[in-house]
Amino acid sequence: xxxxxxxAAVAHYQATGKRTLLDVAIKSANLLTDTFGPGKTSIWxxxxxxxxxxxxxxxxxxxxxxxxxxxxxxxxxGPDSGGKTNPRGLTYNQAQQRVVDQSEAVxxxxxxxxxxxxxxxxxxxxxxxxxxxxVDSIWNDVVSRKLYITGGIGARGGGEAxxxxxxxxxxxxxxxxxxxxxxxxxxxxxxRATGEAKYADVVELALYNAVLAGVSLDGTRxxxxxxxxxxxxxxxxxxxxx
Length: 242
Fold this sequence. Notes:
The protein has helices spanning 2-16, 20-35, 49-61, 64-75, 109-126, 129-145, 177-194, 197-211. With 242 residues, the protein is an all-alpha fold.
């Protein structure tokens, strides 16, 4: 939630020039930096938007503490980090290895793409080659083995997770709309950092075919999951929506 607050505060500040929400975000971020970090509380977030939000807040304010904390929260992930555990398991939370040692996309797809976005931010801002190598390896795993033709990701309904290599069922596809959004956010950051067109291709593919397809034309409903095929005809109104 704080990560989303930071993102919203920076967007509001950039659009209006007003600091009303930005100052609230800064107070919250200062509380985080006072509480977590080397020699303080050691933990990693369960939903990795915090790292992205801190990176964006760093861009807006120039406060190095925010970028340092974003990297700390990422570096804390791993089986021996002392970070918090989750009953769903370390793989579900992308904590089965240190982030710089990871090379495959695993676990909850939304959490994963948020983390990979945060890793791309840290890689771009710090030049840390270990981050660059890891996020490149994960990207290649997704694009070559775990990406639907629509740009959707997250094949499994159980755990809302990535499947194994080439596990891309049509009728059982989960393809959460939120994961497609995360895929766009991640690839947009990779594009901005490198200028390579392959990232723009994924942004375009996922945005037009996986994100927009998940929202109704009148803007009043969205589809949580996006299966690619059904054997029985199903009225649009009966699709799992919110």
